[in-house]
Each structure stands twice: as C-alpha cells, then as structure tokens.
Amino acid sequence: MKKTVLIADDVPFVRKTLTDILTKAHYQIIGEASDGRQAIDLFKRLRPDIVTMDIVMPHMSGIEATKAIMTHDKDAKVVIISAMGQENLVMDAINVGAKDFILKPFSAEEILRTLDRTLRGEERHGMGSKANSTAGART
Predict the structure, then answer these.
(1) For the residues of the chain, what is the DSSP string, one character each?
(2) Which fold has domain 4-138?
(3) I need a labelling partner for 132 at 20 to 30 A (CA). Which of 79, 95, 97, 109 fits?
(4) For residue 129, what are the β-bridge partners?
C-alpha cells in the first residue's frame, strides 16, 4: 500500500515539485495546504502517514502547525522543509516534534531518502544532541 503524504507549503511551485517527486516514487499525495492552519485541518481529517511542512507560511508558521499536529497526535511524522539560513527555525521545529528536515534547494534523492528514513523511524545522523534527545524521547 502506498504511503500517504500531506504537503504544506505556501508556494504552488514547491507543492507541484514535491508532488511530482513523490508520486513518481509511488507515494500518494492526499492533501496540499498553503498555510499552517490548513495543514492542521487536513492532518486531522486525512491522517497522512507523513507531512512535509514549510516553516514560513501565512496565517500560521510551520513551527506552530507542527506543534499543534504533535499535540493532536504525538506519533505524527512531520518533516520540515526550509530555506538555507533558517537553521534556528529548523531547530525550533525539531524541538516541538518534527522528525527531520530538508533544506531548500533540495534534490529528489534528498526528499526520498529523508521521507523513507522518517517513515522507518530512523534519526538523521549529525543532528544536535538536544534534537536527538527530543526525538529519542518521542519514539
């Protein structure tokens, strides 16, 4: 059975790029959100296996949305996708429950490797000790 994905990003081109990469790799895109509030609503209704979440979005940030999703489902798998230079925001997202991150610009291989690793419950090597201890406490 295909793994289901919710894509949350305010840029249509990024959502389309992720959809193309993931559908070619036999993932099923079950929802797209253009802001954090919509991401939370779709997560609750659709129950995806994994969420890709941009950090900077209108109405509600990806960090706030990730925190709300994790409050709703402590086992949710959220992968942050962020622009380079936003490392502090990425760590904030990891600390509220995101399982991993990808920096833009990204490659198809990086997207697939990260989602596969996250779905298997594996941690990224080289993440900070605070992030590792936070992720480890949740698994």
Answers:
(1) -PPEEEEE-S-HHHHHHHHHHHHHTT-EEEEEESSHHHHHHHHHHH--SEEEEESS-SSS-HHHHHHHHHHH-TT--EEEEEETT-HHHHHHHHHTT--EEEEES--HHHHHHHHHHHHTTPPPTT--HHHHHHHHHH-
(2) Rossmann fold (3.40.50)
(3) 109
(4) none
Is residue 52 classed exposed, middle or buried when 0-12, 13-18 and 19+ CB atoms within 10 A define those classes?
Answer: buried
Q: What is the pLDDT of residues 104-125, one digit of tens each?
A: 999 999 999 999 999 999 977 6
Strands 100-104 and 28-33: unpaired
Rounded Cα gap, residues 87 and 85, in angstroms = 6
Integer Cα distance of 93 and 87 in angstroms: 10
Residue 23: CB atoms within 10 Å: 13
Short-list 50, 47, 19, CA closest to 121: 50
Average per-residue pLDDT for the chain: 90
**pLDDT tier for residue 127 given thresholds of 50, 70 and 90:** low
124-136: average pLDDT: 45
**Sign of the Cα pseudo-torsion (110, 75, 39, 87, in order):** negative
